[in-house]
Amino acid sequence: MNESTQPVVRLERLPDHVALVTIDRPEARNAINPAVANALEAIVDQTEADDDIRAVVLTGAGSGVFCAGADLKEIAAGRAAELFTARGGFAGFVFAERRKPWIAAVHGKALAGGCEIALACELIVAADDAAFGLPEVARGLVAAAGGMYRLPQALPRNLALELIMTAEPLPASRAFAHGLVNRLVPTDQVVPEALAVARRIAANAPLAVRESLRVARCAGTAGEAELRALSKEARERVAASDDYREGPRVFIEKRAPRWTGR
Fold first, then answer.
1. pLDDT, tens digit, 9 for 90 and up, residues 217-241
2. Domain 9-202: which topology?
3. Among the options 74, 116, 193, 211, which is catalytic?
């Protein structure tokens, strides 16, 4: 089956309110072409609209590369602009507005735009032989899909600047030591571990998770006054929900929660 009829991004709805999204172009190192960008943006919309999905894991097919970034064949053909969408930016994902948490399950290499896709996720689970890199300057380019500022936010400043300016990759073990990677596991455990983290997140009250995430995302850029205001808004939204009343009942009745997200 050729790529024109085979989905280049797959969405699997799994039990326990979790979804698995797979970029499925292993023959092209899971590089981003226009079809992937459009499909990934559509899947973001689907997962956002589906109340049964509370956390999403994103990975790449095959074992050697999570995502190699932009498909250079598309760029050479003059279709670079088609690797971006109006709402999601590069890959239809890196600038997408999302309320729900995404976890990157990284095996092999996450390079250039592939690294930027991982950086756009809330958490990263990586194989112990994985690597992250922004090699754009070696190609006369810049990491304009978030990498130039998200990497310094996620790593110590000097280390991030070294990676950006030298174009050298960062081994996953070192990324884990500096907090870029949340979990470091053998390659065959990357997706299972990421799904386990997603299920742990999805077991919590979904509205409380979304509101907490909304405030936490602003922690590195907003001032104290704005963060206090955002926290107050989050508290008020959660306090008006059914889940706010469910929490104490669960404790008193000693049973599993029945969260509704409303």
1. 999 889 999 999 999 999 999 999 9
2. 2-enoyl-CoA Hydratase; Chain A, domain 1 (3.90.226)
3. 116
